[in-house]
Amino acid sequence: MPRFDLPADELRTYRPEVAEPVDFDAFWQSTLAESRAVAEPPRLTRVDSPLSLVEVYDVEFSGYAGDPVRGWFLVPADAAGPLPTVVEYNGYGGGRGLPHERLQWAASGYAHFFMDTRGQGSAWGTGGSTPDPHGTGASFPGFMTRGIDDPADYYYRRVFTDAVLAVDAVRSLDVVDASRVAVTGGSQGGGIAIAAAGLVEGLVGAMPDVPFLSHFERAVGLTDRDPYNEIVRYLAVHRDAAETVFSTLAYFDGIHFSKRATAPSLVSVALMDPICPPSTVYAAANHHGVGAEVVEYAFNEHEGGQGLHWQRQAAWLAARLAG
Amino acid sequence: MPRFDLPADELRTYRPEVAEPVDFDAFWQSTLAESRAVAEPPRLTRVDSPLSLVEVYDVEFSGYAGDPVRGWFLVPADAAGPLPTVVEYNGYGGGRGLPHERLQWAASGYAHFFMDTRGQGSAWGTGGSTPDPHGTGASFPGFMTRGIDDPADYYYRRVFTDAVLAVDAVRSLDVVDASRVAVTGGSQGGGIAIAAAGLVEGLVGAMPDVPFLSHFERAVGLTDRDPYNEIVRYLAVHRDAAETVFSTLAYFDGIHFSKRATAPSLVSVALMDPICPPSTVYAAANHHGVGAEVVEYAFNEHEGGQGLHWQRQAAWLAARLAG
Amino acid sequence: MPRFDLPADELRTYRPEVAEPVDFDAFWQSTLAESRAVAEPPRLTRVDSPLSLVEVYDVEFSGYAGDPVRGWFLVPADAAGPLPTVVEYNGYGGGRGLPHERLQWAASGYAHFFMDTRGQGSAWGTGGSTPDPHGTGASFPGFMTRGIDDPADYYYRRVFTDAVLAVDAVRSLDVVDASRVAVTGGSQGGGIAIAAAGLVEGLVGAMPDVPFLSHFERAVGLTDRDPYNEIVRYLAVHRDAAETVFSTLAYFDGIHFSKRATAPSLVSVALMDPICPPSTVYAAANHHGVGAEVVEYAFNEHEGGQGLHWQRQAAWLAARLAG
Amino acid sequence: MPRFDLPADELRTYRPEVAEPVDFDAFWQSTLAESRAVAEPPRLTRVDSPLSLVEVYDVEFSGYAGDPVRGWFLVPADAAGPLPTVVEYNGYGGGRGLPHERLQWAASGYAHFFMDTRGQGSAWGTGGSTPDPHGTGASFPGFMTRGIDDPADYYYRRVFTDAVLAVDAVRSLDVVDASRVAVTGGSQGGGIAIAAAGLVEGLVGAMPDVPFLSHFERAVGLTDRDPYNEIVRYLAVHRDAAETVFSTLAYFDGIHFSKRATAPSLVSVALMDPICPPSTVYAAANHHGVGAEVVEYAFNEHEGGQGLHWQRQAAWLAARLAG
Amino acid sequence: MPRFDLPADELRTYRPEVAEPVDFDAFWQSTLAESRAVAEPPRLTRVDSPLSLVEVYDVEFSGYAGDPVRGWFLVPADAAGPLPTVVEYNGYGGGRGLPHERLQWAASGYAHFFMDTRGQGSAWGTGGSTPDPHGTGASFPGFMTRGIDDPADYYYRRVFTDAVLAVDAVRSLDVVDASRVAVTGGSQGGGIAIAAAGLVEGLVGAMPDVPFLSHFERAVGLTDRDPYNEIVRYLAVHRDAAETVFSTLAYFDGIHFSKRATAPSLVSVALMDPICPPSTVYAAANHHGVGAEVVEYAFNEHEGGQGLHWQRQAAWLAARLAG
Amino acid sequence: MPRFDLPADELRTYRPEVAEPVDFDAFWQSTLAESRAVAEPPRLTRVDSPLSLVEVYDVEFSGYAGDPVRGWFLVPADAAGPLPTVVEYNGYGGGRGLPHERLQWAASGYAHFFMDTRGQGSAWGTGGSTPDPHGTGASFPGFMTRGIDDPADYYYRRVFTDAVLAVDAVRSLDVVDASRVAVTGGSQGGGIAIAAAGLVEGLVGAMPDVPFLSHFERAVGLTDRDPYNEIVRYLAVHRDAAETVFSTLAYFDGIHFSKRATAPSLVSVALMDPICPPSTVYAAANHHGVGAEVVEYAFNEHEGGQGLHWQRQAAWLAARLAG
Fold first, then answer.
1. Per-residue pLDDT tens for B230-282?
2. Size of interface D-F (CB pairs under 8 A)
3. Which of A43, B51, C48, F145 has the most neighbouring CB atoms within 10 Å?
4. B8-322 has which fold?
């Protein structure tokens, strides 16, 4: 049935206790430190485009282990910085695509950085440009189980590190006001935004939209839809691996990042979302470090609020910056 | 199988002879004349939005029979016209949505008008605002069979008339250079663009993307996907109505409009498109009055070229205007 | 799972409190009064058919706003009236079809009137003949959301009025015993029968079969099957419209009509019905004004009891008339 | 695609040469002779029903090997015979159901006999009452492969024999005019009607509707839908059995029965029928012994012409009887 | 959702009270006695095969009512008996196939008998060779409803009797150590193993794997997957037959056999199994006469533990035999 | 439809001309030479198992670039070598699983080596143990598009090299008769076997079963099923990559390997196979260097001949060895 998860009133107060690894902070501190140690300054290349109102730059910055990661950087033409800036992460399977595909933030006067997701970018849209140069053990097709037998090897260790270093890179640019950077993204991009917001200091806000990658022990088996279901299928083959798998995932659970967030957050949740079930979204939002504002879309599936929600994000962010 | 239609080399020369009604031109001349006779000047209302680089207007213009039709009109902020202008029509089931959802043309320096499709706007996206105040006989759910027993009552008579009068309305605006107006749209919007290009004089170009509404006698029964299949299901109930139905559809076939086109056209076609089969697209393109340039997407379904195709459209239109 | 709704013992006592509009009765009184004011006497045309045991008439009567509505009227050949009479409404998407398709009541000695549903009749069967001459705002394909932003414009305002005026029309015929008229129908036809039974005085009984159109707030989102799901999909686009939509639907909820029923009722319910979930059926039945008898089909989906249930209806109605 | 079979103009002349067993006639002569030798007179039991215009009888007659087979016999109340009579066979999986479910022929003044199909009657509708007391070898679920390794054991040997003896039984009744008996049925019932028409002398006509059980070598593997596909799945397991299976089926192919028909026939075919592909229907019709009239439903799947087709049957049969 | 049944902790203690027929034991005693009375000694035929390490015998033994039933008997080449022996039953729709398809037990030093399931063997795999010479009343395609209106006629009465007499037959062989016979099987084979273990004395163990045929009143309607759903579909047609059907099934419920088991058991259960829901498996296991050890596969559907579970079975059985 | 590919008689002579890269042989010579240069001797570890008739060894050998690759090596217990040996490759997504899962060859007196497929082993079965330590560019989930923009980086370069070095490793063992080694495998394993047979000298035979990885230009777009369809979906995103992709795939096409084969081959093909369409299998078989014997399964999908086909393989290989 469309309303398959908890009733709406239970969702709103759903705040499960989920154990976190004792070395969670140490794991991430060392991970980030190691990658920051080998990072080089971002390289921006101006790109020709029909977009006369916006300047477009092809960016390459140092991600996890110094791996080159790509993204698009857009600024209003002839803008005098420093500008408030939005860093955006993408949904599962998509790549950074083409620069004219996401113009709202730049058309609203922001600098906008859209990060490619390593290895992804071939499932929908117009493609990605960032390889993931790290091999993997036996994994189920997709990205959810790459390296899942060890937090050090897990795919999202690299992606979340990329996400944090994307903020570092953006903040290093003259046109960017480093004190007014927000992170956002939908679905996987929302999950990455939650992680970034838990790992980066001094953000002005985070706006995860129908976020993925949260409350794995509930999500895995609650829905039969990928990507969470990739983990079910992996465990259906690796029948003795559940403990190992969930131990790894504990280092990547949005709940733990959400607790550590220091910037306000605007979260969206769709109550009929079969891909990112609403209880998993609320689990992260209700644990937020400084309180998250949740916007509900009662009759939507994973598409959530779409363009309507962007309006709410734009208003919320403008108020944050004005405040 | 994904390649279900004719082989690629046959597609490229597919140019079927399809009979047209003897009074095709008379039908459309009188239809347009009657509606133009009751048209009032468009009303534009400036809309607040976060889009600091673009001015947004909510437009109401007179469509078929003087019915009010809505649309969004976007121009670069502080633009000194007259500007080259793109009029865009929407895909099946969608509404005009929200003004920030389609920014490419305005961000590229064009005036851009996006027309709502009457009665539609509730199947996907963020909604529409234009009623269809005309009742209907017994019809299959959807829009394809509304009034299909008589060309005078058929739903697309009203929609195509709206499309033509949208160009009239846009041309009446000071900021628009009436001699440099192009029409475009994807899927149903592409079909409407073909119709508009066959009915409007003096366009600078037409850019139908994976267009619908062409070569009905082949399309109906070739694919089992809606919207063409709505007609199959109607005929499965109204078992004696085939002759009547195809007589009506003959007034709305993209082939006949394409023959009458006087402006160059850039058409896209996806060779695995199960919704708008490639042979039906080529049938219209290969009959084009002054020759249509076709861009093939060999491994795509109905999504076609997406953002990549917009780049090609932008380059093509810029060349047209420069030429 | 097949048993997706409440357990059987909870269903049997399920009687939710559902708020009704304060002007519910006023709304329907004025609606009916206005349409009755412009009604003309029904016109019957004898139709040739192979059915030598039954006389067939094509009927046109005045429905909502005087709109002409069609139906088939069958009586046993050479019957001396006045006869007990069954008025029947149809399921979603169907039309009145052909007169020989529903012979049970006439073959059992009843007069039988089968009403066409305006605008429908093109989704299955052999067709309908009644247009819906009223236009509509932006609506999702289907009939559930036509005019759903205002009770005055809602599609079922017109249909329920047609249903009541069908009884008026039938009662005006000499061969009909106006004091012995029952209403029936399956699915949508059952929902219409519940409405008619709540709005018409002096019926001898009502026999809704797996009725639709009841307890909308539970139904919408409980099932992922149309027609209830048409409303979900509408609300997924019109994300701010839920309050308006449910305010409109409150004027059309079978629960409120059932409360007002003055004639006994025989209701069927299928416990695995994914289209008209059993809890929504019981919600109406358990609120019935004078008590409804419920027949359960424990292992059926929406087909319910089919021919077996007609036997139960025939026995129940005969007992009612004998009583 | 909906039009998956041959183009319409090829269908109309499709008349494949299909080899028949040399002992085809001998097989059926001995089969019928053996069963007729043990047949007893039919037993009719008057059944109470609400159907005041029609008398209903529960019939048990001797089928294959003397096995008791059931059916419903309906005659207009108080009819003075002898009456023209229609013998009808049922679709796959269905049983004779309840007597009020098929009233058209009796309401039109015919005697009507509806035969139960042995062993079937549990897949849809309201049930059957005739066991198949003969065991079976390893078979795929369903009826298509029961005893398929030997014509003597094949399930349809028993069913076709039942069908012929049903005509014998009906003709023995006083109220029936034995010289004016027609056979009919839809889908499997149509296939049985073709077989009966090839095996019974002196019928006034046959009216198979979208008939099944014809041109097995083409049908098996042309469609992925049951029941033909039951044979595919059997052969997918019994990989060495194809020759045996098709040797058996050759005794039951509608083409061979159609050739032997001596009474005129009215056949329906649906051009988008994925269950009984149109080429298999035309194969039988185009081989008909005295010429079959074919009614095409161009946009229908297996539902064919439904109630509209019954009108055509009724007119055709009346003309036959009048002629 | 994948976790559709009870939560894991409730499953582990789920032990429903299910009424059993008062004459359950009498029914089975007389059933077995009658068939044993007409049993003849098994006939073994040595079969050539490439399997040089294993001797293969084609076995025919007397099953229910003396009907011949086939199986494969494999022993290590040149083995000096008496050997511990595993008797195995097959899953739904499969046949005994080919002797080299199941080599684990023989390759581990056991004698291994794999029984064909009468009438089955045509739905997957490489076929079966055992007819079911008993006819049937109206039944839904498949085997679940054959003879379901009377325990004496029910299909599984014959199958379970075959299973017991298979053990009798195997025990009569010189190479078999009659005191060290275990039974096993997956899915339907697991259900048969439970039945055999409840009806046979002196087994050394039973190893049902994701067993079927248990706790019918819960299973029927809990899952929409065959084979349990065959019963739902039968009852959807035979709407008055539920009491009769469940009365019959009560003689075949694994719970009652499990209670009577005298040998230890190793049961597997898959917590996401939509075909044999885990609660129905636990219902039997938790009622086991001498305690059953349950192995859970938390993320598997009906495939359960596959090869991994065989390792656990082999270790468990070796320990049993060593103990 | 089930018979979706070419008619059977066209299939049997289907032998398309497919261009091969001019440096095909050079590419593979250097690839193999480089990996052989860094190969170390295989390491075998005896594994405890219940399989008393068979000795089991866990093998690690040097594959592509010296990467460690795992496999199971089984020999009849106490076998005096050298033995004829079968090297087997696995189907897509599977791992080497557990050693008792494939016993036929060892039970028939052969040494048997079953190779793990790097990176795979998590989609079905009981798992794999071989990582693929090489990273990848943007790829569609699955393995088909990993590194597809360059033959040097393509995933199957590594897998095919592993396959060849597996034969090297096996031949180095004392118990193996290096002159009597055959290769086999189903689906992907069949495609790998074809590649190995084209790259390895002196094999005694190759037995690819329903092989994958052949005639890519036809396969890609002929079927909508993975894994071939992974390439379609990649190309649907990377719309300009078709030429590059097919240039890469040309180095991995089974047709080119088949041409180079020097040992006889027994190939199976299933005529209704939607995953490895029969024309793509015949394309390779009909180009075989010394002639391939093809076994057709006319009514099977991708399961092909299953256990029946193993019998044919066993007989064919025995005859080869005897010859």
1. 999 999 999 999 999 999 999 999 999 999 999 999 999 999 999 999 999 99
2. 34
3. F145
4. Rossmann fold (3.40.50)
What φ, ψ does residue A161 adopt, rounded to 5°? -65, -45
Does the active-site annotation cover D273? yes
Q: How far is CA A70 from CA A58, A66, A119, A158, in A?
A: 7, 12, 11, 14
Of A103, A109, A310, the CB nearest to B104: A103
DSSP string, F227-287: THHHHHHHHHHSTT-HHHHHHHHGGG-HHHHHHH--S-EEEEEETT-SSS-HHHHHHHHTT
* Angstrom distance (rounded) from CA C165 to CA C200: 9
* Owner of token pair 């060849």: F164
Q: What is the pLDDT along chain B (323 residues), one digit of tens a residue?
A: 789 999 999 999 999 999 999 999 999 999 999 999 999 999 999 999 999 999 999 999 999 999 999 999 999 998 988 999 999 999 999 999 999 999 999 999 999 999 999 999 999 999 999 999 998 777 778 999 999 999 999 999 999 999 999 999 999 999 999 999 999 999 999 999 999 999 999 999 999 999 999 999 999 999 999 999 999 999 999 999 999 999 999 999 999 999 999 999 999 999 999 999 999 999 999 999 999 999 999 999 999 999 999 999 999 999 999 97
For the question of residue F288 being annotated catalytic, the response is: no
CA distances from A116 to A50, A139, A162, C3, C126 (A): 22, 22, 9, 45, 55
- The H or E element containing residue A72 is strand A68-76
How distant is the alpha carbon of residue B45 from its chain centre? 25
Q: What one-character DSSP code corresponds to residue C78?
A: T
Q: Looking at the whole model, is its pTM more than 0.90? A: yes
Q: Is the dihedral of CA D294, D297, D303, D307 positive or negative?
A: negative
Q: Is D224 a catalytic residue?
A: no
Q: Is the peptide bond before C82 cis (omega within 30 degrees of 0)?
A: yes
DSSP per residue over F151-203, as a string? TTT-HHHHHHHHHHHHHHHHHTSTTEEEEEEEEEEETHHHHHHHHHHHH-SS-
- Does the ipTM surpass 0.90? yes
Angle between helices B188-199 and B155-171 (to 10 degrees): 60
Question: Is D306 within 8 Å of C125 when comparing Cβ atoms?
Answer: yes
Burial class (CB in 10 A: 0-12, 13-18, 19+), B5: buried
Which residues of chain B have a CB within 8 Å of the CB of F222?
Answer: 1-3
Instruction: Dig out the tokens for D134 from the structure.
Output: 């003969």
Place of tokens 């002007």: C23
Phi and psi at residue B241, to the nearest 5° = -100, 0
Q: Which residues of C touch E229 (CB under 8 A)?
A: 2
Question: Chain B residues with CB inside 8 Å of A97's CB?
Answer: 307
* Pairing state between β B111-115 and C265-270: unpaired
Residue F92: which of F218, F186, F223 has the closest Cα?
F186
E92 annotated as a binding-site residue: yes
Question: Residue B273 has which token pair?
Answer: 């498109």
Secondary structure, 3-state, D25-62: HHHHHHHHHHHHHCCCCCEEEEECCCCCCEEEEEEEEE
pLDDT tens digit string along D118-176? 999 999 999 999 999 998 777 778 999 999 999 999 999 999 999 999 999 999 999 99
Q: What is the DSSP string of F207-219?
A: EEES--S--HHHH
